[in-house]
Amino acid sequence: MLGFSAGVIPFQYVGCSIFTGKPRCIHFQAITCRITVKLASWKGSLLSIMGHTQLINSIIHGMLVYSFHIYLWPMKLLKLLNTWIKNLLWSGNISTRKVCTVDWKTIFLPWDSGGLDLKSTIIINEALIYRLSWKLLSEDSQWTNMFHRRFFSQGQPLMRHF
Q1: 78 near 122, Cβ under 8 Å?
Q2: For residue 149, what pLDDT is reported?
Q3: Per-domain residue ranges for the chain?
Q4: CA neighbor of 66 nearest in space, from 16, 27, 19, 133
Q5: Among 22, 45, 55, 122, which residue has the fewest nearby CB atoms (within 10 Å)?
Q6: Chain centre distance of CA 159
Q7: pTM of the complete model
Q8: Residue 47 CA to chain centroid, in angstroms?
């Protein structure tokens, strides 16, 4: 009557996957495919390490942050993204592994400490989920009240996936 068609889950809404249950790698396949295409299209021989660093910080992390605000991604996928970023940084290609002369943990350090100021996708995802949790517990708004009624029982979070 209103002209809406019945949809099925999973689907995309505002660039984010809507699905039921625990987040799985298949739910984020569209984002990872776009990142793979983006990383593969950059020519490694034309950019310095600093050029790669800027692209990673601005483009790749920017593509991920919106989804990271909502979902705790599977660790397997986050480690794969870190591997692609590391390969791009050192060899200029996401599929070519190169021996690194600097410890990968050093790369994550700030500029002042001798690092490249890159952030691990694992740390970014965890930080944004902690931020979402903090907002859920500390704010008093319509969406937090709705989430409290839906996902809490007697002040304690329910320990199951929806």
Answers
A1: yes
A2: 87
A3: 11-155
A4: 16
A5: 45
A6: 23
A7: 0.81
A8: 24
